[in-house]
Specification:
With about 625 residues, the protein is an alpha/beta fold. It has three domains: about 80 residues, Sandwich (Immunoglobulin-like), CATH 2.60.40; about 400 residues, TIM Barrel (Alpha-Beta Barrel), CATH 3.20.20; about 90 residues, Golgi alpha-mannosidase II (Immunoglobulin-like, Sandwich). About 25% of the residues lie in helices and about 25% in strands. The protein has an eight-stranded parallel barrel with strand order 10-11-14-17-18-19-22-23, surrounded by four helices. It is elongated and about 90 Å long.
Length: about 625
Amino acid sequence: MNSPFPWWYATGAQLDKNGVHFRIWAHGHRSVSVVLAGAEHSLTVEKAGYFSGYVKGAKDGDTYTLLVDGEGPFPDPASRFQPSGPHGPSQIVDAAKFQWTDRAWRGAKLESQIIYEMHVGTFTPEGTWQAATEQLSALAELGLTVLEVMPVADFVGTFGWGYDGVNLFAPTRNYGSPDDFRRFVDQAHALKVAVILDVVYNHLGPDGNYLPQFSEAYFTEEYKTDWGAAINFDGEHSDPVREFYLSNAAYWIQEYHLDGLRLDATQNIYDKSKDHILAAIGRAARKAAEGRDIILVGENEPQEVRLLRGGEQDGYGLDALWNDDLHHSAMVAATGKRDAYYMDYLGTAQELMSAVKYGFLYQGQWYSWQKKRRGSPNFGTKPAAMVAFLQNHDQVANSARGQRLHELTSPGIYKALTALILLSPSTPMLFQGQEFAASSRFLYFADHKPELAKQVLQGRADFLSQWRSLALGEVKYDDPSLRETFEKCKLDFSERESHSEMYALHSDLIRLRDAEQVFSRQDRNFDGAVLAPDTFVLRFFCSDHLDDRLLMVNLGRDLTFNPAPEPLLAPPERATWSVLWSSDSVKYGGNGTPALDSDLNWLIPAQCAIVLKAITMDGGKANS
């Protein structure tokens, strides 16, 4: 196997034909030993602070610990599994024994995807890989094509979001075994569904992080993050640190057949090197895919378009970025509230239309909330590179009570915005349960020891106090450390039936997107016009215009658009507009939608999204 590393993975316990080989980076230390079955085995010193060697008799399933200069025992920083959690011994894992059935699977490209963000612990009542695997058929049938799994690197406690992971190579024992994870991915591929993993390369969790026991050089004080010490990607002795993270990215792609990565909070991944670590991670991940297509998605609050540019343009080569601007504008449109980090948005038709056309709304303008300019020019970026969403784990939890958007706005506005997200040329993303308007909340939860849990609760309250109403102190927050907080967030799949109207809305929109080429092609061959402060139209063009489609979005009151001096509203020659789809259909709990264009000119219903197609004057299709 061709490898970008001296060993396929830079560190850890790895099986080969000669047995189990251990390799540890412990810069500045004199000795490292493996303790297995009560016996201590010294490793040989290599250059650059590495220690390595085979341990006779070691085998798959054995647990072991490490001694550093006689101190310990410590878990392996590159442990493949922690059966007793981050403070316990590490386990040797033979990845080759799993029988994959996805040889024909060639991965996934960004275009034509619909992403579904999920948290394994709350996705099902059981909160396991096995239970999640049983739901894959339903997700595939709905039309979802990419599952974005929230972080699974092992963390302290029995529940958490996963962003406090400390064992970056060890899928948490809370969801099952490593092979349970592989089985989940294998079954998803059988259903033609890709799986990408959310990874956290900007900090480690506050409990269970043993990297400093091996080398202080893993971290740097030159930069600061909001969650913990920054990773040393560019300082003294940073080469082995970079190697550690590059091999981690390759590991998930290679050993778990994952179809890509979602990189958390890339603005807190600091690197002044000529070869930025993000670009290097992308190359390592793509090389590990061995010809399969993978998708690399970034979260980047400053909206630095450089992340999307290729190396030839001094970029980092990611495929897509989350579009927070579209979410924030949609939230203001839906709720009317412009507090905290929503203060720089109006939620108008112009904003929403511009977000669909251009991606980020802030591309270098002054941003009052941060008192500085935000964003960089996004012109020329393909629409699919913008991930559009109404909900994600952060934004739902930031409602303080974990309320989902359908609880915060009217049914009509919610359905209209859903149509906008699922029919726009961006890459749409749903958050688990969104497809059936789940009644379960999504709160912040983390199972920490009492003193740390107290700090987390206070930190959460301090963060949410940026909202003026929450600063009053009248809201009682769910304690993140309580299991009942975690349990509140579990989905109830019976709501697919009890909330069938909303489930049908999502299902039909996904099918409409797939069936109508003007929506599925994700290009810039469309234009838009604002008809009123809350109303706009998008026209998606075909070469002869006979199969053009109009998407009308009205988030306000009934609108009589008369006169109608807007060319985008003009039907093809000898044709009229007819309703192809409406969010106000009786099927979705609405009252039905009469013709919009008549002798009374345009009558556009309130709080509704409508797709129009052309028919000839005699009632046939415009292109018949």
